[in-house]
Amino acid sequence: MKRTKGFKLGKQTVVWVLALMAVAATVALAACSQPSQSSSSASSADASSAAASSATQEATETEASSSEASSSESSEAAAGSADALVPAFDAPTTVPEADEFGVIHYDGWQDQYPLQVASYLENSYNVPGYKGEYAEITAEEPDTTSVGDIKATASDGKMDYTFDTNPEIQVIGKGYGYAKYYTEPGGHTYSIWSIEHNGRLGDVRGGGTKGILACYACKTPQIHFDAENKGGAETWKLGEVSAHAKEVGVELKTSDAGEELPGWKQSATNGADVYTENVSCANCHQNDNPTEANIVRADWKRVLGKAWESNSLDIPQSAMVCGQCHCDYSMALSKTDDEYSNGEPTSPYEADTDGTLSNISPEKALEFYDKHGIVDWTYASTGAKMLSIRHAEFEIYYVMDGGSSMRKVTNPTTGEAYNCADCHMPIKSEDGTAYHSHKWTSPLDDPEVVASCDTCHTDTVKFVKDIQKDVDGRNAELGKRFADFIHNFEALVATEQDDPANEGQKALLLDEAFAAENGIDADKLAKLQDIQRKVTYYWNLPAADNSEGAHNQVLFNRMIDEGNKLLDEGDEIIVAAGGKASSAAQFEEWYAAQQKKAA
């Protein structure tokens, strides 16, 4: 389907390739537990679509009200017929052997949890692709066989969002990896392959990369165990370059003072052939007991604070576990705050101290980024300090602007509010045994989930797609207008100069003297730069969410409105200086001309 894409590692599946991801991604607590039969028949009402979670303010209230009524009726009907199968959570009888990092691999649990592992392996049918500038790198090693007996090869049939559907990303993200390489994601079982063949980072396996080792943080549990083994997640030292890194000539990086840099800041090449376990059980469960939820990302556990131990918010720990990769975070190195300069993934929220997660909001995220000098990259032609927003599904569904309407609706099977697992890890039944599926995908791709949603919604698929069309459509318009704004901005402040990054070439670079000649003094320049930074956030937050708007339509529409308000302010400054007001139509005309010229 057509998507409005943001800076993240994955899109159509709700899981990360992220990751990114842009990539990430996690599972629910109940998912890896060995189930047992609690009754003789299964109910299709055990999962409903969180993707059908939000509508406009009026529609949201109406839909939530009708859903609650329908849910009550469904509960009564279920009680009157047969109880649903509910997975039981049996602890393992034996603990498998761990690897050199202390991580128990997914296949170690295969005998005790066969249904969960089998569904996990189904993610390998979602094969990653390669496209764009770095296609020749990813095509060199097309065998993406990752786990089990599933044999698959990389595909060039995946959508390339940067060039196929959302060319505004080329302008908004200029100077950052997403403007060069941004394809549809593959399954979680390809998380390591994806990062090592990711055009955003260059040639990781060949040693030519600008990426840092922290890029593995949502790709494998091994890096977190490795960090802890070497002095703790915040301070660990790599100690030595990996054998593969030595082969391709990577040297251990040191500071200006000659000291070893923290492991997170080492070249991403140092992880090649070192980390081999993809996103799997140990990302989300206690390593030796899959019936207990666990968070391996230290920064995310700090953010949750008291809320991790409390159920006062009606957010299960399993959902918080999913949130450790399905959240916004940054690996940018702060130049103003040592606390955020070691490269460890950092969530843009202060620690929760009262158990309310009031620390999580779009405004507080921006405040955090500004306070700590977090800058993902500097836009060369305008000097704006840019932000790249990852997929904040947890915050969006559970917290921001009150969260999703579905968050307030009771699942008739569980008696609790709908959570991540209900829709993305639905309960399945095989030979009378119930279990949570570990095949992570959109609920709209699962006919059983859609059928259960249709007990409350007249047509779930249409309902969700209407939301997505509205939100993605509005956000695409914002993105195009934003790209045009950047063009208008740089026309007043940038000149062709020698490119310091490419000897002998010219580039459009910020020229403050030229800007002053055009009436853009230092104060106005700073204001326009701040507008560019903030609009990036407001556009990127909806664009990067996997639900395409359905998780929280009220929030997304507010973000789009905020972005347009800021562009209105920026247009006033630019027009007063003799420039043009921004519009999506002008960007479309410009892009069409570029395409014609290239042809």
Report on this model:
With 599 residues, this protein is mainly alpha-helical. It has a domain at 462-598: Butyryl-CoA Dehydrogenase, subunit A, domain 3. The protein has helices at residues 57-81, 114-121, 135-139, 161-165, 168-172, 191-196, 222-229, 243-247, 281-284, 298-304, 306-309, 317-323, 362-371, 393-398, 420-424, 447-453, 460-493, 512-517, 522-544, 553-576, 584-598; strands at residues 19-22, 202-203, 208-209, 285-286, 289-293, 377-378, 385-386, 427-430, 433-436, 494-498, 506-510. It has a two-stranded antiparallel ribbon with strand order 2-3. Strands 4-5 form a two-stranded antiparallel ribbon. Strands 6-7 form a two-stranded antiparallel sheet.
Structural topology:
Elements: E1 19-22, H1 57-81, H2 114-121, H3 135-139, H4 161-165, H5 168-172, H6 191-196, E2 202-203, E3 208-209, H7 222-229, H8 243-247, H9 281-284, E4 285-286, E5 289-293, H10 298-304, H11 306-309, H12 317-323, H13 362-371, E6 377-378, E7 385-386, H14 393-398, H15 420-424, E8 427-430, E9 433-436, H16 447-453, H17 460-493, E10 494-498, E11 506-510, H18 512-517, H19 522-544, H20 553-576, H21 584-598
Antiparallel strand pairs: 2-3, 4-5, 6-7, 8-9, 10-11
Helix pairs in contact: 17-19, 17-20, 17-21, 19-20
CATH topology of the domain at 462-598: Butyryl-CoA Dehydrogenase, subunit A, domain 3
Taking all Cα atoms into account, the compactness measure Rg is 24 Å
CA-CA gap between termini: 26 Å
Count of helix runs: 21
CATH class of the domain at 462-598: Mainly Alpha
**CATH architectural type of the domain at 462-598:** Up-down Bundle
Shape: globular
Number of DSSP strand runs = 11
Largest sheet: 2 strands, antiparallel
- Helicity, as a percent range: 25-40%
